[in-house]
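call fold(seq) -> tokens
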Amino acid sequence: MRTSRALLIAFALLTPSAGLAAQQAPAKGADITGTWVINLAKSDLGTMPPPTIDSSTITRVGNVYEIASTSDFGGQGTQSRVLKWPVGEGEASNDSNGATIHTTTKVLADTTTFSSTISFQGQTVMLQTGRTYLSPDGKTMTREMDLQPMAGPSTDPIHFRLVYDRK
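ret:
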């Protein structure tokens, strides 16, 4: 496989709970609009080197969030993407850098849980599960996730806890 594990991890980390709106239930859940910047002191990146930049500006357009993100996770240089994320529950698919990610989200109170399959050239290469939630004051967004590589030098799960501050 020509794609690197670091690139796929970076793709998963850049994708806010990883999805584009395809189908969705009525909007519910926490409002995540605004500009978000990673708080490295509160984040746990596991074995990944810390990014020098990781920020997103999230706007709501109807029942979809449009997310303009910039990051240099994974050592692939600075990457900028515009993604869509359902407001509420739904299923989503997105193609980026040759990878496809399919995500299912569920909302319970202020927490969105997600499960994603990441594929490259039609072959599943990674599974991702996790949850995203806001602090009670809405100034901090936490995304906890586990990435399970399906092949490569290690198939051990990788755990991340990414904390973002609203600017």
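Residues 17-26 have pLDDT under 50 and may be disordered.
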